[in-house]
Structures are given as C-alpha cells and as structure tokens.
Amino acid sequence: MQPEDIVRVDISSGEVSGKRKPSSEYPIHLALMRERPDAQAIIHTHGANTTAVSCLRRDLPAVHYLVPLFGGPQIRCAPYATFGTDALSTNVVTALHRRRAALMANHGLVVLGRDLDQVLALTAEAETLAKLYLDASAAGDPHILDDAEMERVIKKFRDYGYGPVPDQNNSA
Ligand SMILES: [Zn+2]
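Above are the sequence and the zinc ion SMILES. Below is the predicted complex in structure-token form.
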C-alpha cells in the first residue's frame, strides 16, 4: 500500500476523493468519527474468533477480567444488517455506546480508540478474549464475572490509562 492508495472521505459532507474506492464499511467509520470524539482511530476486522462469537449472536461476556478494557462488563453484539448499509452503521454505533468495541452479528468486529497503536492492541486483545470464551465454552460452562467485580476492575484500569469511555456527543 502506498500513500496515493489512501482514500479521503470528508467527515462533514461524506465526499470521497482519491484513486480508489473507500471500504464498503466507510459509513460506520464516518458515523463513529462524527459521533464519538474519542474515536480518533477505528479498526474493523473479520477476525476468526470474534467473528465466531458474532455468529452465535451473543455479547462477549466477562469471561476474563480484561473484558472491561473495552468499557463495560461485556462487548455487545450489534444486530445483523447487510454490509455497507446505514442500518448496519446505526446498529454498530448503538452497540458501541460507552464501549471501545462491538461485535457485528455474522460479520466481525469494530474497535475504536485514541490512536492506531491503542486500537490495534485492543483488536488483538478482543481476539484473544473471544478465543478464551470459545475454548472455555467448548470445554464446559465458563463462570462469568459479576458486574460488581467488573466495576472494581474498571476503576483499577483507570490507573493504566484506560479511562472511562465517554458518552456519544460528549467529550468529557
Ligand atoms: Zn466487514
């Protein structure tokens, strides 16, 4: 990939410029960058483990204490809609309320954060957690950590640079 392969999309008008076409999911990127001031970088993947959980149409629950790195006691699964549609974009934005990641039913994963280094690290962590959940579920019935414990963990994460996830349209 070369710099000239990058496609620019105007955040206000949605106007596209460049030699190539933007990703079919650019409406998701656009909607998140408009509505989430904390979304300075966004990664969308079809990673095998997160996508497998998305095919179960389940939230990824607090099967491990690192799940609240993504902002809460679960990574929600956005309802299915056809790829590239505004309906899918709306579903993903809703599932990402006060979260840094959302599964997309029968599709994949979206992660957002302050820069690409952070978001890439979180994307890899989401894959690891989804694999843990799938492996533990295959072996038995995994114990899910309760919300009170997740609140304690979220408070401790603040010391590691993972502060609370701001609300939509709220840079606080
Ligand atoms: Zn996709």
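The radius of gyration is 16 Å.
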